[in-house]
Amino acid sequence: xxxxxxxxxxxxxxxxxxxxxxxxVDGSFQILNRHAPIISALGKGTIKYKTGSETKTLxxxxxxxxxxxxxxIVLVEGAN
Length: 80
Prior knowledge:
Blueprint: E1 2-6, E2 11-16, E3 19-24, E4 27-32, E5 38-42, E6 45-51, E7 54-60, E8 63-68, E9 71-76
């Protein structure tokens, strides 16, 4: 699937990912390839995404995520 992680200032990641774990406001959840459409608010926590054999992480302060047609767009307020 295609994953894009964006802040108001810049694009943090854009590319292929096999899974994404996101910190939802009611707990973390995972999106895999061909996931059903979803829109969710995100709380403070860690985004983990797998690209090939590598797992990357980002700490966020909140935001939103949308999954539609095998593309995940994550809009975050701030990340490090």
